[in-house]
Design a protein that fits this description.
single chain; mainly beta; Immunoglobulin-like; 4 domains; five-stranded mixed β-sheet; elongated; signal; transmembrane; transmembrane helix; DUF4352 domain-containing protein; membrane
């Protein structure tokens, strides 16, 4: 609020300007003793000079400016209070939280596992270069190792979180601090963690898996046994400037349930980090890995074929687990070959849902009576011939409906189990058009008999017929050994 001196000074200045241009107006405002312009100017000039002198004495603006500048400098020089968090704690900045779960140290790398969460109402952009490793000697490092587990740049919607690993190549030092600097905040604002060198969990550098190694997790074992580069196959030639890579591998099911493996769960990458899917056409199909179902403890063996730029390097094979709830990926370096000490072997196991019977002995499941009469192994039928190295297994079966309603049946209620644990569906090959077991509806108290045909490898000798009218994973199944 202005003081009285300022008001008089402003009023005198206005009156002075009015008197300069129109002294008669001033006289009419009630100052009759001022008869001319000279007296008016002298009077109000004196008022202005006097008020200015009083204003200078009372306010002293130079002192005020100096004091204000001094106060500003003292406030800016006051250090900001900064919270230093420890491993395992959750750091907070504005509406962002950062949790540092673990820190692992090897001879060359330091990896930090984090969880970043956005608690604001706006989208939060983030990238790995916002996470800085600071050494006690004053160095600042950003993540410089990229693999499948490392944190990638992205955006967090309100309420979302992201987790990942940051890997640094670091010089030996006595200690470190770890900082996260959001893009939208002041450069001095950060979430800081203290990494005491004694507190770091020192771990040995993980072995890089290559050809011959068993790559494993809780669900499967994967082993690449051989890798070949080919300029052509019997049926096709690669594009100009390209070549084929053939990967022989084995997979084992370590779960308690059956698993289905698809060739498109595999990818191959090269030095340009381009991801390639296996080829499925225009190449020979002998031993080519296809969609395969195997029981617990079962092992499948097959080949994958990829078309890659000629002389491509840094070849890596990736396998993503076939589950809806996991994105876990196993990797194999195809340019690193180790001695093959052991190969995967089957160890089949069956839980209480698998019911065993005998050939020629009727057995009941879900009001259906199954009888397996005979089986035969042949190389050809009336209409077709088995592929090289394979044979047809023909099985004579009968189903009888003991329920009080009609029951549907299908040839695909049956599968053939090999000694390696692979489940094979019936072949579409016709036998003679009269005796094949087909699909239909079976009236109560009636039966149907027919022939099932399967194509198997010649070396598959321990075979069993599997019957399950329900296709649910945990439904009961009948197992009838054929030999």
């Amino acid at each position: 609020m202005p003081n009285i001196t300022s008001m008089f000074l402003l009023l005198a200045f206005i009156c002075l300007m009015t008197g300069i241009f129109s002294p008669d107006i001033v006289i009419k405002w009630g100052i009759p003793h001022l008869k001319n312009r000279k007296n008016i100017l002298i009077t109000f000039s004196g008022v202005i000079i006097g008020c200015s002198f009083l204003y200078a004495l009372n306010e002293n603006p130079m002192i005020s400016v100096t004091e204000a500048a001094s106060s500003t400098r003292s406030q800016s020089s006051k250090p900001l209070e900064k919270v230093i968090y420890q491993i395992g704690e959750v750091g907070t900045l504005h509406e962002t939280t950062l949790e540092l779960n673990s820190v692992n140290q090897t001879e060359e790398f330091l990896s930090i596992n984090i969880v970043l969460q956005n608690h604001s109402d706006e989208v939060l952009a983030y990238n790995p270069y916002q996470f800085i490793l600071k050494t006690n000697t004053g160095g600042s490092l950003v993540p410089n190792v990229d693999d499948e587990t490392t944190l990638k740049a992205g955006e967090l919607a309100p309420g979302d979180e992201v987790s990942g690993t940051l890997i640094y190549t670091y010089p030996l030092d006595e200690g470190y601090s770890f900082e996260y600097r959001p893009v939208a905040t002041n450069a001095l604002a950060s979430i800081t963690f203290d990494l005491e060198i004694e507190a770091l969990q020192v771990v040995s550098q993980p072995k890089v898996m290559g050809i011959g190694d068993m790559v494993t997790n809780e669900s499967i074992d994967l082993q690449v046994t051989k890798v070949e580069r080919l300029n052509k196959t019997e049926l096709s030639t690669p594009k100009k400037g390209y070549e084929y890579v053939k990967v022989d591998l084995m997979l084992k099911n370590k779960t308690d349930d059956t698993l289905i493996f698809f060739p498109y769960h595999f990818e191959l990458s090269d030095q340009y980090n381009q991801k390639l899917k296996p080829m499925t056409s225009l190449i020979e199909t002998e031993n080519l890995l296809k969609m395969t179902e195997i029981v617990s403890g079962g092992v499948i063996e097959g080949s994958l074929m990829f078309e890659i730029p000629k002389n491509a390097t840094n070849l890596m094979l990736y396998y993503t687990l076939p589950t809806l709830f996991s994105k876990e990926t196993l990797s194999v370096n195809l340019e690193l070959e180790h001695e093959v000490k052991n190969t995967l072997t089957p160890s089949l196991s069956f839980n209480e849902n698998w019911l065993f019977g005998e050939r020629l002995v009727p057995i009941e499941l879900e009001n259906m009576i199954l009888t397996v009469f005979s089986y035969d192994k042949v190389n050809e039928t009336t209409y077709s011939k088995a592929k090289d190295g394979k044979s047809f297994i023909i099985i004579d079966v009968q189903l009888e409906n003991r329920s009080e309603t009609d029951k549907n049946y299908s040839a695909y209620d049956f599968k053939l189990l090999t000694d390696k644990g692979e489940l094979i569906l019936p072949s579409l090959t016709l036998i003679d058009n009269d005796h094949e077991f087909k699909s239909g509806s079976l009236a109560m108290e009636s039966s149907i008999e027919g022939l099932l045909i399967f194509e198997v490898d010649d070396f598959d000798t321990q075979l069993s017929l599997i019957y399950s009218p329900s296709q649910w994973e945990h439904s009961q199944k009948l197992v009838i050994p054929l030999s």
